[in-house]
Amino acid sequence: MPVVNSLDRKLNILVAEDNLINQKVAMMNLKQMGHDVEIAINGRMAVEMFKSGSYDLILMDLQMPVLDGISATIEIRKIERENKVANPIKIIAITANVLTEDRNKCFDAGMDYFMTKPFRSEELIKALKS
Known about the structure:
Strand content: 15-25%
Distance between the termini: 26 Å
Structural class: alpha/beta
CATH architecture: 3-Layer(aba) Sandwich
Helix content: 40-55%
Largest sheet: 5 strands, parallel
CATH topology: Rossmann fold
């Protein structure tokens, strides 16, 4: 039985994460909250899925192969600007790094929120509502 979703609606969420365990944890938490989840195993795949999919939110790991989360976010924001997207997708950084410098890089790239791993369901709910 899903946990009561504290949001007004079910979200379609893209999780960009290369670590299999972290993928499973994020998927389990989000599905328990009643959301649909798709996984991208690297930043390049996340950008391609963003271009061809319809997502409400991206959870973006910072350190991934092929294309890191910062670079993927920069590409996504560029695509949105080129297409004059009125409501840009919310991108939440998920990382093990807690340095202020890392936070600043995330926000400079266009990310909307920053969470450290492992994150709790309550923190995820707060990020989803922000």
